[in-house]
Protein backbone atom coordinates (compact mmCIF):
# COMPACT_ATOMS: atom_id res chain seq x y z
CA UNK A 1 0.00 0.00 0.00
CA UNK A 2 1.57 3.26 -1.14
CA UNK A 3 1.00 6.42 0.86
CA UNK A 4 0.81 9.89 -0.57
CA UNK A 5 3.76 12.07 0.44
CA UNK A 6 3.05 14.48 3.23
CA UNK A 7 2.31 17.98 1.89
CA UNK A 8 4.21 19.38 4.85
CA UNK A 9 7.34 17.42 3.96
CA UNK A 10 6.99 18.37 0.32
CA UNK A 11 6.33 22.09 0.90
CA UNK A 12 8.41 23.10 3.92
CA UNK A 13 11.66 24.80 2.88
CA UNK A 14 13.13 24.10 6.32
CA UNK A 15 12.34 20.38 6.23
CA UNK A 16 13.57 20.16 2.64
CA UNK A 17 16.84 21.84 3.61
CA UNK A 18 17.34 19.46 6.52
CA UNK A 19 16.48 16.39 4.43
CA UNK A 20 18.74 17.41 1.57
CA UNK A 21 21.62 18.41 3.86
CA UNK A 22 21.52 15.01 5.56
CA UNK A 23 21.38 13.19 2.22
CA UNK A 24 24.25 15.28 0.86
CA UNK A 25 26.34 14.70 3.99
CA UNK A 26 25.85 10.94 3.71
CA UNK A 27 26.71 10.92 0.01
CA UNK A 28 29.84 12.97 0.54
CA UNK A 29 30.92 10.96 3.58
CA UNK A 30 30.64 7.70 1.58
CA UNK A 31 32.45 9.30 -1.34
CA UNK A 32 35.30 10.43 0.91
CA UNK A 33 35.56 7.50 3.29
CA UNK A 34 36.32 4.65 0.88
CA UNK A 35 39.32 6.09 -1.02
CA UNK A 36 40.75 7.76 2.08
CA UNK A 37 40.52 4.51 4.06
CA UNK A 38 41.78 2.37 1.14
CA UNK A 39 44.62 4.58 -0.08
CA UNK A 40 45.64 6.44 3.06
CA UNK A 41 44.54 4.16 5.90
CA UNK A 42 42.60 7.03 7.47
CA UNK A 43 38.97 7.41 8.45
CA UNK A 44 36.94 10.37 7.26
CA UNK A 45 37.05 11.63 10.87
CA UNK A 46 40.86 11.54 10.76
CA UNK A 47 40.75 13.55 7.55
CA UNK A 48 38.37 16.10 9.10
CA UNK A 49 40.78 16.56 12.01
CA UNK A 50 43.78 16.98 9.70
CA UNK A 51 41.85 19.42 7.50
CA UNK A 52 40.84 21.46 10.55
CA UNK A 53 44.48 21.79 11.63
CA UNK A 54 45.41 22.75 8.07
CA UNK A 55 42.80 25.55 8.33
CA UNK A 56 44.39 26.80 11.55
CA UNK A 57 41.93 25.25 14.00
CA UNK A 58 44.52 23.86 16.35
CA UNK A 59 42.79 23.08 19.65
CA UNK A 60 40.99 19.78 20.14
CA UNK A 61 37.84 21.41 21.57
CA UNK A 62 37.63 23.83 18.64
CA UNK A 63 38.05 20.94 16.20
CA UNK A 64 35.23 19.02 17.89
CA UNK A 65 32.94 22.02 17.51
CA UNK A 66 33.97 22.73 13.94
CA UNK A 67 33.45 19.20 12.60
CA UNK A 68 30.57 18.37 14.94
CA UNK A 69 32.29 15.38 16.53
CA UNK A 70 32.14 14.30 20.16
CA UNK A 71 35.31 15.33 22.05
CA UNK A 72 36.26 11.69 22.86
CA UNK A 73 36.08 10.84 19.13
CA UNK A 74 38.31 13.80 18.33
CA UNK A 75 40.76 12.71 21.04
CA UNK A 76 40.94 9.16 19.65
CA UNK A 77 41.51 10.51 16.15
CA UNK A 78 44.21 12.87 17.40
CA UNK A 79 45.92 10.00 19.26
CA UNK A 80 45.94 7.90 16.06
CA UNK A 81 47.27 10.79 13.98
CA UNK A 82 49.99 11.63 16.51
CA UNK A 83 50.91 7.93 16.66
CA UNK A 84 51.29 7.86 12.88
CA UNK A 85 53.48 10.97 12.91
CA UNK A 86 50.93 13.14 11.09
CA UNK A 87 50.22 15.55 13.95
CA UNK A 88 52.21 16.80 16.88
CA UNK A 89 51.01 18.26 20.14
CA UNK A 90 52.53 21.42 21.58
CA UNK A 91 51.88 23.00 24.96
CA UNK A 92 50.62 26.55 25.16
CA UNK A 93 53.15 28.50 27.28
CA UNK A 94 50.47 30.76 28.79
CA UNK A 95 48.26 27.80 29.79
CA UNK A 96 49.99 24.68 31.04
CA UNK A 97 46.90 22.54 30.45
CA UNK A 98 46.16 23.69 26.89
CA UNK A 99 47.47 21.86 23.86
CA UNK A 100 47.66 23.00 20.25
CA UNK A 101 48.07 20.72 17.28
CA UNK A 102 50.41 21.12 14.34
CA UNK A 103 50.76 19.15 11.15
CA UNK A 104 54.09 17.42 10.71
CA UNK A 105 55.65 17.54 7.23
CA UNK A 106 54.26 14.02 6.67
CA UNK A 107 50.87 15.20 7.92
CA UNK A 108 50.91 18.13 5.48
CA UNK A 109 51.65 15.80 2.56
CA UNK A 110 49.00 13.36 3.76
CA UNK A 111 46.20 15.92 4.02
CA UNK A 112 47.09 17.32 0.60
CA UNK A 113 46.83 13.77 -0.82
CA UNK A 114 43.47 13.30 0.96
CA UNK A 115 42.19 16.52 -0.58
CA UNK A 116 43.38 15.39 -4.02
CA UNK A 117 41.60 12.03 -3.58
CA UNK A 118 38.43 13.74 -2.39
CA UNK A 119 38.31 16.18 -5.27
CA UNK A 120 39.16 13.52 -7.87
CA UNK A 121 36.60 11.13 -6.40
CA UNK A 122 33.92 13.80 -6.50
CA UNK A 123 34.60 14.66 -10.14
CA UNK A 124 34.77 10.98 -11.08
CA UNK A 125 31.47 10.20 -9.33
CA UNK A 126 29.66 13.28 -10.67
CA UNK A 127 31.33 14.19 -13.98
CA UNK A 128 28.34 16.07 -15.40
CA UNK A 129 27.89 18.56 -12.58
CA UNK A 130 28.10 22.15 -13.69
CA UNK A 131 31.11 23.77 -11.94
CA UNK A 132 29.17 27.04 -11.60
CA UNK A 133 26.37 25.18 -9.78
CA UNK A 134 28.89 23.52 -7.46
CA UNK A 135 30.58 26.88 -6.73
CA UNK A 136 27.30 28.72 -6.15
CA UNK A 137 25.91 25.95 -3.94
CA UNK A 138 29.12 25.80 -1.94
CA UNK A 139 29.06 29.57 -1.37
CA UNK A 140 25.42 29.49 -0.23
CA UNK A 141 26.05 26.53 2.05
CA UNK A 142 29.03 28.31 3.58
CA UNK A 143 26.92 31.41 4.22
CA UNK A 144 24.17 29.32 5.80
CA UNK A 145 26.64 27.44 8.00
CA UNK A 146 28.24 30.70 9.09
CA UNK A 147 24.85 32.10 10.08
CA UNK A 148 23.88 28.89 11.89
CA UNK A 149 27.21 28.61 13.72
CA UNK A 150 26.78 32.20 14.93
CA UNK A 151 23.80 31.16 17.05
CA UNK A 152 24.83 30.52 20.65
CA UNK A 153 23.51 27.66 22.75
CA UNK A 154 21.43 30.16 24.77
CA UNK A 155 19.68 31.29 21.60
CA UNK A 156 18.67 27.74 20.70
Question: What does this 3D model show about the protein?
Answer:
The protein has a two-stranded antiparallel sheet. α2 crosses α6 and α3 packs across α5. Helices cover 67% and strands 10% of the residues. By secondary structure, it is mostly helical. It has one domain: Winged helix-like DNA-binding domain superfamily/Winged helix DNA-binding domain (Arc Repressor Mutant, subunit A).
- Assign an overall shape: globular
Output the helix-strand order: HHHHHEEHH
Count of discrete domains: 1
Q: How many strands, what sense, and barrel or not for the largest sheet?
A: 2 strands, antiparallel
CATH class: Mainly Alpha
Structural class determined from secondary elements: mainly alpha
Uncertain runs:
none
Total number of helices: 7
Mean pLDDT: 88
> Within the largest sheet, what's the order of strands?
1-2
Q: Radius of gyration in whole Å, from Cα?
A: 19 Å
What do we call the CATH homologous superfamily?
Winged helix-like DNA-binding domain superfamily/Winged helix DNA-binding domain
Helix content: 55-70%
Q: What is the CATH architecture term? A: Orthogonal Bundle
- Count of beta strands: 2
From the 3D structure, determine the CATH topology.
Answer: Arc Repressor Mutant, subunit A
Q: Approximately how much beta-strand content do the residues carry?
A: 5-15%
State the end-to-end CA separation.
Answer: 39 Å
Amino acid sequence: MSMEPSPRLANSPTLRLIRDAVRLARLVDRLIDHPIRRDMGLSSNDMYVLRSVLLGIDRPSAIAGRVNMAPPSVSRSIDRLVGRGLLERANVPSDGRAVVLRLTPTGSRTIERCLDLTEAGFHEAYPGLDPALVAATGARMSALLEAMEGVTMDER
